[in-house]
Amino acid sequence: MRKINPLFVAAGLCVLIIIGSINLKNNSVRLDNSIIELNNMIMITNNYKDMKENWFDGKKIETNVANLINDKSFSSTKIDKRISKNSIKLNLATSNKEILGVFVTKIMNEKFEVHQFKFSDSFVSFEIGVQ
Questions:
Q1: What's the CA dihedral at 31, 37, 41, 47 to 10 degrees?
Q2: Tens digits of per-residue pLDDT, 27-56?
Q3: If you classify domain 58-129 with CATH, what class do you get?
Q4: What residue spans define the domains of the chain?
């Protein structure tokens, strides 16, 4: 019976250890990439949920528009509101440029889907989408 050289056993163990560490490193990198993808998917789903709750809730949009119309900043002016199936159209005509600026700022700061925006020195018109 022949003896096995201990150097061959040691070399074989070293090769197994190197191959195992390379596999471990590759799997670690794949796990890190999977975690990053999972976090991105969670962020996308949260953004979608927020958009669905805020942008496509017709009752919430109508409530926000009603609050905007009833705002005390615009008590001296008349805001014309026309509601159709898919949109709400707001018109404000006044010679006071400050009121026009406040109105535009308030509309733009809300979470509205603005379909159309027209303005001049004494007139502002918005068409807001309602789902």
A1: 130
A2: 999 999 999 999 999 999 999 888 777 767
A3: alpha beta
A4: 1-55, 58-129
